[in-house]
Amino acid sequence: MTAITRRIGSLSVSAIGYGAMPLSYGRQNPPTHDEAIATIHAALDAGITLIDTADMYAPSWDTMGHNEELVAEGVRTWSGDARKVVIASKGGIVRGPGKDGQEESKGRDGSLAYLRSALEKTLANLGQDSVDLYYWHRPDRSIRYAEGVEALATLQQEGLIREVGISNANVEEIDVALDVLGAGNLAAVQNQFSPTYFHTSLGELRRCREIGAAFVPWGPLGGAGGGAAAVGEKFPQIARVAEAHDVSPQRVVLAWELSLGPHVVPIPGAARPASVIDSAQAPSLQLTTAEVEDLNSILG
User: CATH topology for 13-299?
Assistant: First the structure.
């Protein structure tokens, strides 16, 4: 069976990506090293060719790069053809010790100097000379938005970045990035988007389609803390479609998000092989027109 692919700039990727964050960050009981590698291998074995990471996905401020290193190891030790795998990472969030040495502080830095330093560390963690797709993780409100995008453009011109993206950006910031990079050169926008979170990102999804950029939903199933697990209970539309096809509610959500446009590439997170294997099957779930309309009613 031919894999279903989508475009992110010049890159061809699986329609569903894999968000590796849960392997290193945001969970009270993170997986062991071996479990993490097994989950990455399961994603790749299931046909996923886009893995999303970031330098700040780490158990603590002094282990920055932990997730990138895991992803690199998982891809390197996989038995398949790693040349087809696209790794995306992000930079611009600063982590450090708090005033008492234990409480952690977080900040943002979109300067060229910081992003260059962060990117160099990312490349070392990944064992690469350039990164396939690099996002500015979150806006740094102490500088003009254009300045951060200009920094990424400079690093791209130096050959350290293949495709440029921005994350957690609004429509105005997307347009600023487009002005800086030029038409067709903003590869992707990665924003939070799910059945439970869309009011501040639906406009960005639509704007990306207009300008030819990929829209990459993070937290596409509703996020951690039970949001993803309970999505079928919260939305009867999702439960109805899942029952009709005898599949998980989570798979229905991803198939529906794919139906919102050919530029949409969700990156569900997973800390277990079973979860990522289920997500990877979403592109093959054929929703009827009536089912899509029913699911679209979630958006109001």
Answer: TIM Barrel (3.20.20)
